[in-house]
Design a protein that fits this description.
42% helix; 7 strands; 175 residues
Length: 175
């Protein structure tokens, strides 16, 4: 792909505190499009999470509009044509969807359809935690979520023009 061509879909993966949110914002801002930050973390989890959210907002570049408390990705894309949508983070979006759907195939179908059918109207930068690199979780529910996350990453990896893995604040180009 030509370096001057912007990706329709960029997937940024990494572990905790790897720099993936910062990298996602860099990619989104480089698109030259208006950027809307699709925040997936609920504000009312606990005080420490609220502080993290506030810090993220303070550190965000000026001019980025935030979309909160919305999980319908197709509707967000339809309402923001011509934008670069920065979804941070997919892992939390997946978790929220598990309360809506009991079948992981339904979650993956919604994700794939929402992203793929909107690529002619918006650019996506999707940030997600790579949770499959650690030890096998001890309980079945955690293993099922790890598997859902891995399947979502594979789905988006196939659709993406760009996939990067963040390691120690350094982006490693995967695709």
């Amino acid at each position: 792909m030509n370096q001057n061509t912007h990706s329709r879909l960029s997937l940024v993966l990494g572990g905790n505190r790897s720099g993936k949110s910062r990298r996602g914002e860099e990619i989104a801002l480089s698109s030259g499009l208006p950027v809307a930050y699709v925040a997936t973390c609920p504000r009312d989890l606990d005080e420490e999470m609220s502080e993290r959210i506030e810090r993220h907002q303070r550190e965000r570049a000026p001019g980025i509009r935030t979309i909160e408390n919305q999980v319908d990705l197709a509707a967000i894309a339809a309402a923001n044509p011509g934008h670069c949508l920065l979804l941070d983070c997919l892992t939390l979006w997946l978790y929220i969807q598990t309360s809506k759907y009991s079948n992981h195939d339904e979650i993956l179908a919604e994700l794939g359809q929402a992203v793929e059918t909107s690529l002619d109207r918006v650019q996506w930068v999707i940030v997600s935690s790579e949770i499959g690199l650690g030890v096998v979780p001890a309980d079945a529910e955690s293993r099922r979520f790890r598997d859902l996350s891995g399947s979502a990453h594979q789905l988006l990896g196939r659709l993406a023009d760009r996939v990067e893995l963040m390691v120690a604040g350094i982006p490693l180009r995967v695709k």
